[in-house]
Every structure is written in C-alpha cells, then in structure tokens.
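Per your request, structure below.
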C-alpha cells in the first residue's frame, strides 16, 4: 500500500514542476517582437514623414534629425537607467513617484528571464517599452522645430526621458500611486500623449514664436509626405495598442478593432467640421484627424467596445480641430506642428473617455470600475490627467532652462532661423530640385 502511494506521489512531481516553472510562449513572444518593430516603424518611419511634410522645406532635414536623434537617445537612456526608474518598485514615499536604479543597464535581468507581464522574455518587454519612451520625446519635437538649437534638444532629450517620462510611466504603469489607485491607461494616452502634448506646449511658450509667425505664410513642404507618414503611423499604431495586450490574445483583438474604428471615425469628423467651417475638405485635415483618433483611443483601446470607439473617435476629430484652429489662435502660442492641439487635447479626452466607456469585463482587476464604481473610475482618470499636466509642465520648464543654460541659449539666432536649420546646422538640404 505504501509502495503504491509513493508511486502515485512520484508521478505528480513532473506535473507540479511544470505548473511551477513558467515557460515562454513562442506565439506571444513572436507577437510582442512584431509589435515592438511596428512601434519602431511608427517613429523612424511614420513620424519623420508626418512631421517632415508639415515643415517648411528649409527645415525638413532638421525636423527629421530631431526625431531620429530623440529616438536613438531615448533607447539608450531607457536601457541604461530609464527602465529601472520606471519599473522597479519598493517601499517608501519615493516609490509612489519613481523607482530606483537597481536594474541599471539591465543589472540582474537575465535574457532568459520571463516577464511578469506575460509569457515572453523580460528583455522583449524592456525593448517594447523603450519604443514608447522614444516616440513620446520624439513627438515633443513637433512643438519646437524651426527655432530650437540642436545641441539644446540633444541634452533636453536625455534629461526629459530621465526626469519626466520615466517617473510618469512609473506612476501610471510601474507601481506608482496612480497605478495603485486603479488609473486606466491601456497603451499610453496619459503616459505618452498628454505627457508629450503638455511638454510641447511648455517648450513652445518658453522658446517664443517663430520670427515670421503670423507675418508670412508658413506652408508645409509636402502634404503628401505628411499623409504617407500618417498612414505609417496608423499602421504602426496596431503594434502600439494591440501590443499593449501583452500577448496574441482576445484583448489584442479588441484593441485592434477599436483602434481602427476610432481612427476612421476621427478622420470623418475632422474633415466634416472643416468642410462645414472652411468649405474645403483638406488632405492635411484628414491626416490630422487620423492622428487625433489614434491618440484618443490609445488609453481606451483594450477597454471599450465598438460603440465606445466610435464615440471616442468622433469627438476626438472635433477636439483636435478645435485645438488647432480655435484654441491656438485664441491664446496665440506657436506650437509648430500642433502637438498640444492634437496629442495633448485628444489625449486628455481619451483618458477621460476611458472612465466613461470602459467595460467592467475588460478593466483590469485593480481599477475602481471592477468594483462597479464608475464615478470612482472617472475621478481617478481626472486625477491622472491633472497630475501628468502639473508634473510634466513644471519639470519640462526646469529641464529646458537647465538645457538652455548649458548650451548657451536654447534658441537659434535670427540669421540661422532665416536661412533655415538644414543648411545652417546640418549642411544639408532635404530637396535638391
């Protein structure tokens, strides 16, 4: 009898060993690698074309260079210390805002280590998140092109990813106080778009207007390039949003559909508004509407159904148009490529709308909505919006002044601005026609 019992217990050892030993899922790993690559394409392909086409021909090289450089620097900073600051956790008040440096240069994270987020390597998660940090600071460049010194920008990128992006990512995603409160941000409406939009607005105000702003026509070099960039952003955004499901699963399917639907709806609403107001539907408006829709659905992509996606997208197109053609003119700031008008405002709308339209069945377990408290969820969303606006605005201003002082002024001289930064700073032309 005892012999049979021992045989039975011995037979269970492999079962328990398998149950306790986490294994890499090759399908989920393949999807996360693909999603990471899609976000890379968003930045170095889509955003460079989108921004480059909206810039005057004499500054297109500088615009693309700022995006490319921001991407490269952010990837390095993230791997050295940004990931650790964002996703390390511990006890004490400081950890409510930011992590520590225990994972500096991925110290202690073996390449075979499985992520706590999903059945794929931690290194894949780190790479995926690095692209989010990179595109966020790259977006900010759109507010300051044609007048910010390249040396100032390089230093600012390093400081901003360290002292603004990493703490905001920690607060919302990495175990900080908004994470503990149950703030919902599926793929970066708060962490990426409100963050970038507010930073861009602050920099635009501090740098001042371009010298010919409202004095001469400032025309885009190519709306066709901009629209091609918008198309690549739309394509890559599926990695951004569906990838944030952290697996090839049903939630990724939700994010895929809602992202596509909200974006298409925002294109229609933006074009409809400008058609009514300005009597002409424009290609640049359609491209801008697409970005507004992508931004607004980002925090909600994995939490809402088709109805919620349509409402979020439709209002996003109107909000983006309002930010570009009403708010900016009323206040008078020179946000070169309307980073705040589109990313900031549409991001705020998307973060708030997530509280209204998120389904209880899709919201993550720590959210107030899981307990049936929708008003509580909306309040948490408002808190996340307000904290990001205040923290980012203050820190961005401080970091700009530091960068400006260390590079002998943040703005190019008047002669350089007149000639164009392409030839004056880089010795190149975007078009040799």
């Amino acid at each position: 009898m005892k012999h049979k019992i021992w045989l039975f217990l011995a037979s269970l050892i492999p079962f328990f060993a398998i149950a306790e030993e986490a294994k890499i899922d090759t399908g989920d790993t393949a999807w996360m690698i693909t999603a990471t690559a899609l976000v890379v394409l968003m930045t170095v392909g889509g955003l460079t074309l989108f921004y480059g086409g909206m810039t005057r021909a004499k500054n297109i090289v500088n615009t693309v260079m700022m995006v490319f450089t921001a991407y490269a620097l952010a990837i390095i900073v993230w791997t050295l210390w940004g990931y650790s600051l964002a996703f390390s956790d511990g006890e004490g008040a400081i950890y409510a805002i930011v992590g520590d440096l225990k994972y500096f240069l991925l110290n202690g994270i073996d390449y075979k280590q499985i992520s706590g987020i999903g059945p794929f390597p931690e290194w894949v998660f780190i790479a995926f998140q690095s692209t989010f940090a990179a595109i966020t600071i790259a977006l900010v460049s759109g507010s300051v092109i044609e007048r910010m010194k390249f040396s100032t920008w390089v230093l600012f990128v390093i400081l901003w990813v360290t002292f603004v992006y990493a703490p905001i990512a920690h607060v919302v995603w990495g175990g900080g106080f908004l994470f503990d409160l149950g703030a919902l941000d599926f793929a970066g409406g708060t962490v990426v778009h409100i963050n970038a939009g507010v930073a861009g607005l602050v920099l635009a105000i501090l740098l001042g207007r371009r010298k010919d702003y409202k004095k001469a026509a400032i025309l885009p070099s190519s709306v066709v390039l901009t629209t091609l960039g918008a198309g690549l952003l739309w394509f890559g955004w599926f990695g951004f949003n569906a990838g944030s499901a952290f697996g090839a699963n049903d939630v990724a399917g939700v994010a895929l559909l809602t992202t596509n639907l909200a974006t298409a709806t925002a294109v229609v609403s933006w074009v409809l508004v400008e058609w009514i107001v300005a009597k002409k539907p424009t290609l640049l408006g359609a491209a801008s509407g697409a970005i507004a829709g992508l931004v607004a659905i980002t925090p909600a992509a994995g939490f809402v159904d088709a109805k919620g996606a349509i409402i979020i997208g439709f209002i996003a197109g109107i909000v983006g148009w309002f930010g570009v053609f009403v708010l900016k003119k009323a206040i008078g700031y020179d946000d070169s490529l309307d980073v705040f008008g589109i990313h900031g405002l549409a991001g705020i709308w998307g973060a708030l709308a997530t509280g209204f339209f998120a389904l209880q069945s899709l919201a993550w377990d720590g959210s107030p909505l899981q307990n049936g408290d929708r008003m509580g969820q909306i309040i948490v969303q408002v808190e996340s919006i307000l904290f990001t606006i205040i923290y980012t605005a203050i820190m961005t201003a401080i970091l700009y002044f530091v960068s400006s002082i260390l590079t002998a002024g943040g703005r190019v001289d008047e002669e350089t601005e007149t000639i164009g930064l392409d030839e004056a700073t880089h010795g190149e032309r975007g078009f040799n026609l």
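The two ends are 92 Å apart (CA to CA).

Regards,
D.
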